[in-house]
Amino acid sequence: MPITYEQVAGRAFLRQLYADAYYPDHVVDKGRAILLRLCERIEAERPSDLAALYVLTHAATEEFNLLEAEFDAAGSEIETVAREEIGEDFWFVASAYGFSDADTEELIGTRNW
């Protein structure tokens, strides 16, 4: 399902990670895909409140948890810069879909990075 929200479709997700050679593009691409799938799910399921949104963001966060091993295998990791960039993109997504009152820490509350 293509993303219909222009603001979201035009977003350069994980921009700082792509700009830093420490983060391998092929792994960052997978992170970007996670965020895009999150957007697709939000558009398809249209969560009615923050609790429903958090279910979706926690599932996407779990995907990032699994991606940590791929970062490690490539000589990288989800550390402070990456953690902040990922968190900012999760908040951007929440805000773009009308959940500007979402708590950034709760959006990625199931993270282990």
What is shown here, in short?
This protein has 113 residues and is an all-alpha fold. It is built from six helices and no strands.
Description:
- This protein has 113 residues and is mainly alpha-helical.
- The protein has one domain (14-107).
- 66% of the residues lie in helices and 0% in strands.
- The chain contains six helices and no strands.
- The protein has helices spanning 6-9, 15-19, 25-45, 50-73, 80-96, 104-107.
- The model has no long low-confidence stretch (mean pLDDT 96).
SS-derived structural category: mainly alpha
User: What is the strand tally?
Assistant: 0
Rg estimate, integer Å: 13 Å
Count the DSSP helices. Answer: 6
Shape estimate: globular
Q: What sequence of helices (H) and strands (E) makes up the elements?
A: HHHHHH
Task: Describe the largest sheet.
Answer: none
Mean pLDDT: 96
Count of spatially separate domains: 1
Oligomer: single chain
Helix content estimate: 55-70%
Low-confidence stretches: none
User: Could you tell me how far the N terminus lies from the C terminus, measured between alpha carbons in angstroms?
Assistant: 29 Å
Report the portion of residues in β strands.
under 5%
